[in-house]
Amino acid sequence: MKRRNFLNSAGVAAGSLLLGRAGLSFPYQENFNFSDIDDDKLWEEVRGHFLYSKNLCYLNTAGNGALPDSVLNELSKAMKHDAMHPGPGTKGEKWEAVKKKCAKLISNDIDNSEIALTGSTTEGCNIIINGLPLKKGDEVITSTHAHPAVIVPLLNRMKRDGVVLRTFDPDLINASGNIEKIKALINRRTKLIFISHITFTTGQIFPIKEIGQLAKENDIWFAVDGAQAVGNIPIEIKDSNVDFYTFGGCKWLVGPKRTGVLVWKYIIT
Q1: What is the dihedral of CA 190, 138, 116, 253, to 10 degrees?
Q2: Which of 100, 115, 171, 254 could form a disulfide with 15 if both were Cys (CB 3.0 to 4.6 A apart)?
Q3: 3-state class of 210 per DSSP?
Q4: Would you say the C-alpha torsion 70, 71, 77, 81 has a positive or negative sign?
Q5: Which of the four pLDDT bands, split at 50, 70 and 90, describes residue 238?
Q6: What is the mean pLDDT of residues 145-160?
Q7: Residue 146 in contact with residue 225, Cβ under 8 Å?
Q8: Rounded CA gap, 9 and 24, in Å?
Q9: What average pLDDT does the segment 53-77 reach?
């Protein structure tokens, strides 16, 4: 894949979207187009928008991302605007516009009423796990490669409410093997399957559409930690039977810290 195609398809450098700016193309200028740059010069152009030293090769997208100068500039402008025009909060229409743009990162069929802006993926995971009406003896399935943002609140519910945690070691060779591993753990007490779309340990991509179908067939909630997926791979959760999907802006999206999104398709009554 050509470098410019990788950046366009992955949605890399969409940080300004989480700030409410229009467009996904780097570096957020309306007249910028990857096709305007010779492929051999593309990485040099992209690299020029990051402030870390020239002798540093930055590869840490599993943690907090390095911000390009365009995102830093937008953050500075927003903070200065708030300082110059103090008020009780953010205008509703601006809030809704940001939610609409964030929703498009994972689906073309998500209503604003199904999306919340959070402080991080971790916050989204905690809202899901602590918000579901799980009772003593209810079982939750996840993998041994799940992020601590999923594992820690699940352990808390084990200790507090008597929820049972069931884990499986991912099949690193065959995607279908993970379906079978999950299927083997399902029983009448299973209430929730919570996995990473892409694991932070190995970069494995789980087949969420097939897992979602399995969850639907067994009347089980299905939640996905998308922290390592959004901005990394093209995503469409419309047909994946995902009840909850959460992600943040500080990794592959190259956005600011303390930005996150939680999407739910299941309304608890």
Answers
A1: -60
A2: 254
A3: helix
A4: positive
A5: confident
A6: 97
A7: yes
A8: 10
A9: 81
| pTM of the full structure | 0.83
Phi, psi of 247 (to 5 degrees): -155, 170
The pLDDT, as a whole number, for residue 75 is 86
The sign of the torsion formed by the CA atoms of 265, 185, 202, 125 equals: positive
Residue 18 pLDDT greater than 50, yes or no: no
DSSP annotation of 164: E
How many C-alpha atoms does 202 have within 13 Å on its Cβ side? 12
Extents of the domains making up the chain: 1-269
Residue 40 has pLDDT above 90, yes or no: no
Amino acid at 61: T
HSE-CB of 62 using CA atoms within 13 angstroms:
10
Domain 1-269 adopts which CATH fold? Aspartate Aminotransferase; domain 2 (3.40.640)
In sequence order, the 6+-apart residues with CB closer than 8 A to the CB of 197 are 205, 206, 208, 224, 225, 226, 228, 229, 235, 245
Residue 44 binned pLDDT confidence (cut-offs 50, 70, 90)? confident
